[in-house]
From TrEMBL:
Keywords: Cell membrane, Membrane, Transmembrane, Transmembrane helix. It is found in: Cell membrane. It is a multi-pass membrane protein. It comes from the Eukaryota. GO terms for cellular component: plasma membrane. This is CASP-like protein. The chain crosses the membrane at residues 40-67, 79-99, 111-138, 158-179. Homodimer and heterodimers. Residues 31-174 form the Casparian strip membrane protein domain. The keyword DNA-binding does not apply. InterPro entries: CASP/CASPL, CASP_dom, CASPL. It holds the Pfam family CASP_dom. Belongs to the Casparian strip membrane proteins (CASP) family. It comes from Theobroma cacao.
Amino acid sequence: MALEVARDKASFMLQAKSLGIPGSNTSKTSFFMAQIMLRVFAAAFTVAAICVMVTSSQSIILLGFSIRAQYSYSSAMRFLLVTDAVVCAFSALSLILVCRLSRSGSYLKSCFYLLMHDMVIMVLAVSGCAAATAVGYVSRYGEEKMGWMAICDRVGKFCNQMMITLVFSYLAFFSYFALAVMSSNKVMYQANE
């Protein structure tokens, strides 16, 4: 009975390795390819968010006065722009790091450093998204108790462009969330081997 269990376990381990479950060379290659792709996606999403944000503005005439809506008038939108730029820059730098780490010998240590990097960038990205989302919500719906009026009914084009910016920024955040989950999963499996 014990011999059959040992044989079944050995058979399972061989099947797992052939399927690319952690520990195999194929798993290492696919892990780093996924890392590279998600980092490229994060960089592309933040570049798109920055481009939409800096080109968005709208002018309206209200009660005879010309009013212009622009991202630079909101500290939350400026913060989102800076966080998107930082996420983009660190995504590009981490691509170089991932390529170098894929060739290094200390695999567990590499995965741990990637995890730490991804967690910091993920928190930075979500903080920028959260700040801009709060301001965007008040801009779209207002806050009656505070006396803040919604402005998106007057500058709809600008609000829609900011919504597109937020979508791209959140996509970059979710890319880093996936990277953090992948890295933590890899660190956990490597530490147990």
